[in-house]
Write a structure and sequence with these properties.
Helix content of chain B: 40-55%
Number of strands of chain A: 16
CATH class of the largest domain in chain B: Alpha Beta
Structural class of chain A: alpha/beta
CATH superfamily of the largest domain in chain B: P-loop containing nucleotide triphosphate hydrolases
Strand order of the largest sheet of chain A: 6-7-13-12-11-14-15-16
Distance between the termini of chain B: 62 Å
Number of strands of chain B: 9
Oligomer: heterodimer
Number of domains of chain A: 6
Largest sheet of chain B: 5 strands, parallel
Number of helices of chain A: 36
CATH architecture of the largest domain in chain B: 3-Layer(aba) Sandwich
Distance between the termini of chain A: 83 Å
Structural class of chain B: alpha/beta
Number of domains of chain B: 2
Chain lengths: 889, 271
């Protein structure tokens, strides 16, 4: 303690910042008190040279010391010594990066890095060069991914040993694509580059930095690792095409759920299929690419063939069990997991189910996509051979799921019997519940005969639920009794190629809310004597992104009833769906910005309430996001079409008018007619000229977007909300108006109460379409209520000062105005008044209402020909521009 | 007085029955419209069977059919007719529309939005209760033959931002909506027209459905029934299935390589 005090006081007396660093350093070392003496010695030594060096050591030593690695410390001291010869200025940045590495626990890379530093700084070079290296190195190395850093730094060492000037080129090369190479490939590339450099320094440099075509080609050729980012778009497009629902691929690193270790190659949660960031199993790039495709194709089959729509009720009915055999705590468990819970060894039930389910998928894929089976099955079979467990259950998996031949033993015969049962059952009914039925039928026998190595335990296997009828496999005599009575077994779980074990819990977590609603709804309907399966309701909700309509529900019930020949239109008037569906949470933005006051029309008073509404006008804080480019990407086709259409809308400067009695030129078609008419002795027309007229377009438009809470509602058949679609429409709108060159401005509005109206500026008239604006669009999110009158008045203020000949205010909303004390007729009257005020100032006000069926009230609000209704918001991106185009044509 | 039989009426009659499979109630709708001589507008995506339907109806009703494919340079005179020079004399030559009006045929204006705006105005007096064609050049107002009927087809998804029918034109027609048939019917059609077995045809239709799923990703339109029939016909000519699908379905649909790749993947999966 005394030493700490002394050191701190001593260093503080030299320079206060040194003192602080020492104090903090000791603080850091409290976790490793035995290193304090070393720290003391080293900072004393450094401090004697000068406070600057002392401070550097005080800051950067603790991360080294806490590693308690002697080699590291020695190397650190050695490196610092070498670097000091060039000057203290060389230390700060490189050592800071070392600390970052050590804090991340990457000692291995740190060692290589220190060697690199000592090698570099023991060479001769100018002050400028050394200064440059000090800053370049940490920056470049910071870009290397931690898991590859060690061997990438090693290659950098090789390069600098050859020539110090190559360090920078190597770093450029890494940026340009060398980072995609695997360890071996990079080493090979560097060897080639160095050989080239020795022969011809210039071409060698270009090769290493990937500036030359040869370098680029060699790198691309070598690269066998495939990154998810390279193939992600293609996989997403494939998924969209094949299964037609919104599901996308994503990196496994982004999964929120717990996964087993080692992580599976593929897992999915109903919205995303998670795949590894990179695959480098094979030495050929295309083979690795194939693995990505195969995994995606397999995983998507779960969704195409409704694996996770498994319904326990259906399964129990199929198995002839009338009620749940055990009361299972079903909180937070999916139907499938509850089903596994019926069995004494859940894992065995799960494995059996997986076997049959993968078999079912194989059969269905073979039926619908023979091509997929041709591509995938050999791969899976090869992998199965590689990971072969040599247990009966594994052979059963290989036979049923992978169509491989079982061993020619008694077990093999037994497996064949299972397979025959499976083929028959799946042939009769290929739904997922059949697999449950098969588990019911085979569990007991599998338990007795197929699982490995029973241990000696006095407890008999727990009894199995009684069933009504059903097939029972008679096991061959030689297997009868094996393991029976010996009880609790050490069950070795099944090992499945690529770790594709069924994880019903993950999709369940994603759609838990839907599951809850579906359960509630099912029970309510049951009370009224209407029978619906939970999974059917859930399926409907997933398809509609959580939205349920009474009509669809009716249709579902009607369809079910039809099956049981009890068809009648159900009466669901008692059902209030909105009660069941939960409220969507909202988030708030902090209130700030310039304040404006506006009047409001009170229809009860028949007069204005002056200074009634407070509008706070501000910019949305943009967030960095790829929303804008990804929206562009998603609507690629539409964007192209729109650009073309708007290109045509753009005044071409001159327009040709025909049929004029005087003009610039003859119209040859008219001339021909003239001759004909003369011959025919008819009176020819004298309108023979064409005229070229200069055309210009002077339009300014303000797009006012309603950002009320209701825009958070999900859009049917899509995982996006109304707001997301509106934002996508805005993206397209910006692109189109950029082409046509009209001045435009975008603003959003929302708020609560007359004093809390927020007016969010997204883009001003004079702002260019840059990243700030794009990020603002990304940041738009559903807020609170809709006090439309005030917002329109403020928008008019903004538009009023614009000099354009045609000024247009386009209101994009998803319903009627609605706020505290601002409802129904009052709200409509005020909004209508605000619109009339705008029109009186020669501002055209047009409105687009989405997600609402045509209503006569809209006529009252906006005027009969001044609004458009887009009942399905998904059409908005397309229609917004059509409408705009029609309005300004 | 019955209208005189026009000499080229025979040449415009459809003699052999075209293959057509009804997908909704379009036949009875059309018959009713024809009975009251209501002009008909057929709406639907490309290659879904609009033109074939018209041929089929002309055959069923035994009425001559004159088809005009509209394009950007179609002037009113191209429809009505013009004076031509013949041996230093001017001779009037009827355009297809005038001929149809005279002989009492079905005049089918295919892709009417493609025509110049002024041509659409010509059809206005023909499509209301006047049922007359004004031939300005001759100073003639030609009353339509009692059997005459005007049909236009129009693809709402196609170049919609650019070209749209005016309300005054639209509201002169009764409209029949066409779409790609359901899987079962579409497979029957492809099997019958392409002369392939139904199993293969179901696969082709499945492929088309999957391609229609990615329409918004950059395809202007999904794979049409017509393209499926082309593919079937190629297969019938012993072209390997994958090759036929690529040639007849993928390549015509788009130039985008990424989309081609996805479509190729689908083909590889399904066949």
């Amino acid at each position: 303690m005394d030493t700490i005090e002394e050191d701190t006081i001593w260093s503080y007396s030299l320079e206060p910042s040194f003192g602080e660093a020492v104090a903090l350093g000791y603080d850091r070392l409290t976790t490793a008190p035995d290193t304090m003496s070393c720290y003391h010695a080293l900072i004393r030594k450094a401090g004697q040279t000068g406070p600057t060096l002392g401070k550097l050591m005080a800051v950067f030593l603790p991360p080294v010391l806490v590693c308690k690695n002697n080699r590291l410390l020695k190397l650190f001291e050695h490196t610092v010594e070498i670097m000091l010869k060039k000057g203290t200025y060389t230390l700060a940045a490189p050592l800071e990066f070392l600390s970052i590495m050590l804090d991340g626990g990457d000692i291995k890379s740190a060692l290589v890095y220190l060697r690199l530093l000592s090698e570099i700084f023991s060479q001769d070079f100018s002050y400028n060069q050394s200064l440059r290296l000090c800053y370049m190195l940490p920056k470049a190395l910071g870009q290397f991914p931690p898991e590859k850093r060690t061997w990438q730094i090693r290659q950098l060492r090789r390069v600098v040993r050859e020539d110090i000037r190559l360090a920078e080129l190597f770093s450029d090369g890494m940026k340009n694509g060398l980072c995609l190479l695997s360890q071996k490939e990079l080493s090979r590339f560097i060897t080639m580059g160095l050989t080239k450099f020795r022969l011809n320094p210039d071409s060698g440099k270009k090769f290493l930095s990937l500036e030359s075509k040869l370098g680029k080609d060699t790198c691309a050729e070598m690269q066998s690792t495939v990154f998810l980012s390279q193939i992600q778009q293609a996989l997403n497009r494939y998924l969209r095409a094949r299964i037609g629902i919104q599901i996308a691929v994503r990196s496994l690193a982004l999964i929120k759920h717990e996964v087993t270790a080692p992580p599976p190659m593929v897992v999915s949660d109903g919205k995303f299929i998670y795949l590894p960031d990179e695959i480098s199993i094979f030495s050929q790039k295309y083979e690795n690419m194939e693995i990505y495709k195969c995994l995606t194709k397999l995983e998507s089959a779960y969704y195409e063939f409704h694996t996770f729509d498994f319904d326990l009720e259906k399964a129990l009915e199929r198995a002839g069990i009338l009620s749940e055999p055990f009361e299972i705590d079903s909180q937070n468990l999916s139907d499938m997991e509850r089903f596994f819970g019926f069995f004494p060894i859940k894992k065995l039930a799960c494995d059996l189910f997986t076997i049959f389910e993968h078999g079912r998928i194989r059969v269905l894929l073979y039926r619908n996509y023979p091509g997929i089976i041709r591509q995938i099955l050999p791969l899976l079979q090869r992998e199965a051979v590689r990971i072969c467990q040599n247990t009966p259950l594994f052979h059963l998996y290989a036979r049923i799921a992978l169509d491989m031949r079982p061993p020619q033993t008694d077990i093999g015969k037994f497996i064949e019997e299972y397979a025959a049962l499976f083929e028959r059952k799946i042939g009769e009914d290929d739904s997922v519940e059949t697999c449950a039925e098969l588990v019911f039928e085979t569990y007991h026998h599998a338990f007795v005969n197929l699982i490995s190595e029973p241990s000696n335990s006095p407890n008999p296997p727990p009894p199995f639920p009684e069933r009504e009828g059903g097939d029972v496999i008679t096991a061959p005599l030689s297997f009868q009794g094996r393991g029976r009575g010996r009880g609790a077994l050490i069950y070795i779980p099944l090992n499945i190629p690529f770790g594709r074990i069924l994880r019903p819990d993950i999709p369940y977590q994603t759609f838990r809310e839907f599951e809850r609603i579906a359960e509630t709804l099912k029970n309510r309907l049951k009370e009224k004597g209407i029978h619906v399966y939970k999974s059917d309701i859930k399926k409907l909700m997933i398809r509609n992104s959580g939205r349920l309509s009474a009509d669809e529900l009716k249709e579902l019930i009607f369809r079910n009833a039809k099956d049981t020949e009890n068809a009648s239109e159900p009466d669901l008037s008692w059902l209030v769906l909105s009660d069941i569906q939960s409220e969507i949470a909202m988030d708030d933005l902090p209130v700030s910005g310039t304040v404006f006051w506006y009047r409001e029309w009170d229809s009860n008073l028949n007069d204005y309430l002056h200074q009634h509404v407070r509008v706070s006008d501000r910019f949305v804080d943009g967030i960095e996001s790829d929303f804008y480019p990804s929206a562009l990407q998603r609507h690629q086709g539409l964007v192209r079409k729109i650009r073309y259409a708007f290109e045509l809308l753009k005044p071409q400067g001159l327009v040709i008018l025909r049929n004029w009695t005087e003009g610039d030129e003859f119209d040859y078609r008219a001339l021909l007619d003239f001759v004909m008419d003369k011959k025919a002795k008819l009176m020819p027309s004298d309108r023979l000229y064409i005229k070229r007229i200069k055309q210009d377009r002077d339009v300014a438009v303000l797009l006012l977007v309603d950002m009320s809470r209701s825009t958070a509602n999900a859009v049917p058949g899509n995982d996006a909300s109304v707001m997301d679609i509106e934002k996508q429409a805005l993206v397209l709108f910006c692109e189109a108006l950029d082409v046509v060159g009209d001045a435009f401005c975008i603003a959003g509005f929302s708020g609560t109460g007359r004093l809390g109206l927020d007016y969010f500026r997204i883009k001003n008239f004079d702002e260019a379409m840059d990243n700030t604006v794009r990020n603002r669009i990304s940041a738009m999110s559903p807020q609170r209520s809709t006090r439309m009158g005030g917002a329109i008045r403020h928008a008019v203020t903004q538009l009023r000062h614009h000099p354009a000949k045609v000024r247009l205010l386009l209101v994009l909303g998803d319903g009627f105005p609605n706020d505290a004390d601002y409802k129904e007729q009052y709200a409509i009257d005020d909004t209508h008044k605000a619109i009339c005020e705008a029109r009186s100032e020669n501002i055209h006000v047009k409105a687009i209402t989405v997600n609402l069926d045509e209503s006569p009230m809209l006529d009252e609000l906006y005027g009969s020909v001044h609004h458009h209704v887009i009942s399905d918001v998904r059409e908005l991106p397309d229609k917004l521009l059509r409408i705009y185009r029609a309005l300004t044509r | 007085m019955p209208a005189p039989i026009h000499p080229d009426i025979i040449s415009h009659l459809i003699e052999t029955e075209p293959y057509y499979l009804e997908t909704g109630n379009e036949i009875s709708l059309f018959k009713a419209a024809y009975h009251s001589r209501l002009p008909v507008m057929l709406k639907g995506p490309t290659g879904c069977g609009k033109t074939r339907f018209v041929e089929y109806m002309a055959y069923l009703l035994k009425v001559p059919l004159i088809t005009v494919s509209c394009h950007e340079d179609l002037f009113a005179s191209d429809l009505i007719g013009r004076f031509l020079l013949k041996n230093d004399e001017t001779v009037w030559s009827d355009g297809p529309l005038t001929r149809a009006v005279r002989m009492g045929a079905i005049c089918y204006l295919d892709e009417v939005v493609e025509a110049r705006k002024d041509t659409t105005v010509v059809i206005h007096p023909l499509t209301d209760n006047r049922r007359t064609l004004v031939i300005e050049k001759k100073g003639e107002v030609l009353p339509a033959h009692p059997d005459f009927l005007l049909i236009v087809s129009y693809n709402p998804g196609y170049q919609s931002v650019l070209k749209d029918l005016k309300q005054s034109t639209r509201q002169r027609f009764v409209s029949i909506q066409f779409n790609y048939p359901d899987i079962e019917k579409e497979s029957q059609i492809v099997a019958a027209e392409g002369n392939i077995d139904i199993e293969l045809s179901v696969k082709l239709v499945n492929l088309a459905h999957k391609i229609r799923n990615i329409r918004e990703q950059g395809l202007t339109e999904g794979a049409s029934t017509r393209l499926l029939i082309y593919a079937a016909q190629l297969i019938q000519q012993n072209i390997p299935v994958t090759e036929a699908c690529k040639t007849a379905i993928c390549l015509p649909l788009t130039d985008d390589e990424n989309l081609q790749e996805t479509m190729n993947d689908l083909i590889a999966d399904i066949f």
